[in-house]
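Notes from the 1:1 (GR / supervisor)

We went over the backlog. Supervisor wanted to see one worked example end to end before approving the batch request, so GR pasted a single chain during the call. The sequence is below; no edits were made to it. Supervisor asked that the structure be written out right there so they could see what the output format looks like.
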Amino acid sequence: MRCVIMEKGYSLLESLVSFAVLAIVILAIVFFLSEGLRSYMRTENRPLIKAQQTVRELLNGKAGDRRYGLSGEIRSLIALSKADRTISTFVKNSGERYGDINFNGLFDTNESIVFDEDKSFSYEQGTDTLILGTTPEQGFPLANFNPEVKHTDNGSNAYKFDSSEAVVYDANDNNLYDTGETVLVGATPENGAEVVPFGNTITYYLDIANREVKRVENNAQPVTVGKDIFVDLPHNIFGLRFSYFDK
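Structure output shown during the call:
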């Protein structure tokens, strides 16, 4: 006996076939739409995909020198913004240290500042130079200054500290004295006066126009430390042929 569906008299088999055909059509439409979207995304992201592929090749050592115009192995990869080409900035200790009398890890107003000539981290009479305060005992341990402890600079001795300069705690680390910040040694500087770290500020950066890596110490003229030693990849990724930075 035939089973009749709805008023038009479709059989159960005919109805199932119709539903199956409709389902196949819907699946086909969904498939083609998804493939089209994937193809569009691949096209839109082609530069990023290419950059990722190149990075993998560089890390795996498969990128030939001729291909990228380099000689030597790619040692490191960095991502930089368009506005800032700085690779690294840090403070290199120049030998100015203090005697941490109470061993609290902080410079206090009653503690001595010396120049540790032999970089032994202990006071050596006849070798090290006392800059401020009382002479420490022979062999007394010396410590590096915290990054926030800075001093004014009168410009007479290339950023080295002397006893006529003030020592302050640069709470917001903006390299300026702001009214209300703690003065540890000397007269209170004017609001907005420049303060510098104990040590030398070293900066490495990429000179894109000349294809050079340059090094700047404090505010001195930049010095070229390498030429044609980086490759400019898409999306501000750079491959460096060296990985050394003095500390």
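Supervisor's comment: Residues 4-44 form one domain.
Batch request approved.
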